[in-house]
């Protein structure tokens, strides 16, 4: 579904992403793990069209999208839940969800998807007229995920969805991610909680200083001594 080939990204003279290649097959959960500053978020932003690569290609469903703008990428089925939630704090829950569907014109389908989001996140249904900025961190994360789902993505990017959440909420968020995937959405997950990410991932890539240094199935990497020492506290 998604293929990244020899991707390089620079910020001025800083070579942030150094010739990485990765694939995400339809129906998978693929996770990208690594320390802060490894280049995980920059990778997602580049695939989303928010940052231009210096070189390399990005292919989605067999089409080269390297030079497509971010809006067009949403249109063809790519959506991102950004790091730190980034909800529109002075707008209501419902208005935030409405913005997630801004490229759509199918009113009946949009109304149906509001219900889908409210069924998946019942707390949002109770708070739909509440300002998003007054929600708890966990509720804002659910809203950010619901907003992304309103564009009906084929491929969903999640950037650090567990960041700053209580352990009980972290488990709930990962259960929701698994459920979204089970219902047909392919997922590329960037996550510092390597243990949780590897438990639900079909495949995983490890990033260090802009390079992919290791890859394998989630099960393989969670058993790896190298990964245990570096990321799992083993």
Give the secondary structure arrangement, pairings included:
Elements: E1 2-11, E2 14-24, E3 29-33, H1 40-48, E4 55-60, E5 63-64, H2 70-75, E6 78-81, H3 93-100, H4 107-120, H5 122-126, H6 137-149, E7 155-159, H7 167-182, E8 186-190, H8 194-200, E9 203-208, E10 211-217, H9 218-223, H10 225-231
Parallel strand pairs: 3-8, 3-9, 6-7, 7-8
Antiparallel strand pairs: 1-2, 1-4, 4-5, 9-10
Helix pairs in contact: 3-6
Number of helices: 10
Query: How many domain modules?
Result: 2
Assign the structural class, choosing from mainly alpha, mainly beta, alpha/beta, alpha+beta, or little secondary structure.
Answer: alpha/beta
Specify the CATH class of the largest domain: Alpha Beta
Approximate strand percentage = 25-35%
Low-confidence stretches: none
Mean pLDDT over the residues: 92
Strand segment count: 10
Distance between the termini: 34 Å
Q: Biggest sheet: strands, sense, closure?
A: 6 strands, mixed
Radius of gyration from the alpha-carbon trace, in angstroms: 17 Å
The CATH architecture of the largest domain can be given as 3-Layer(aba) Sandwich
User: Strand order across the biggest sheet?
Assistant: 6-7-8-3-9-10
For this structure, the CATH topology of the largest domain is Rossmann fold
Query: Order of SSEs, N→C?
Result: EEEHEEHEHHHHEHEHEEHH
């Amino acid at each position: 579904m998604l293929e990244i080939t020899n991707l390089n990204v620079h910020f001025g003279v800083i070579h942030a992403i150094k010739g990485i290649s990765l694939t995400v097959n339809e129906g998978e959960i693929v996770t990208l793990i690594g320390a802060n500053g490894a280049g995980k978020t920059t990778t997602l932003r580049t695939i989303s069209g928010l940052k231009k690569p210096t070189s390399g290609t990005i292919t989605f469903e067999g089409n080269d999208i390297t030079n497509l703008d971010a809006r067009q990428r949403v249109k063809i089925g790519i959506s991102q839940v950004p790091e730190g939630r980034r909800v529109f704090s002075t707008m209501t829950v419902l208005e935030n969800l409405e913005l997630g569907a801004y490229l759509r014109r199918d009113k009946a389908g949009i109304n149906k998807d509001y219900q889908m989001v409210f069924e998946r996140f019942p707390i949002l249904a109770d708070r739909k007229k509440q300002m998003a900025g007054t929600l708890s961190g966990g509720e804002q994360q659910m809203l950010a995920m619901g907003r992304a789902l309103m564009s009906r993505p084929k491929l969903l990017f999640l950037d650090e969805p567990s960041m700053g959440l209580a352990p009980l909420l972290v488990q709930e968020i990962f259960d929701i991610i698994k459920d979204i995937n089970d219902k047909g959405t392919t997922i590329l997950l960037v996550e510092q909680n390597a243990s949780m990410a590897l438990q639900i991932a079909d495949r995983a890539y490890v990033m260090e200083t802009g390079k992919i240094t290791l890859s394998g199935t989630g099960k393989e990497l969670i058993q790896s001594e190298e990964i245990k020492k570096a990321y799992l506290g083993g």
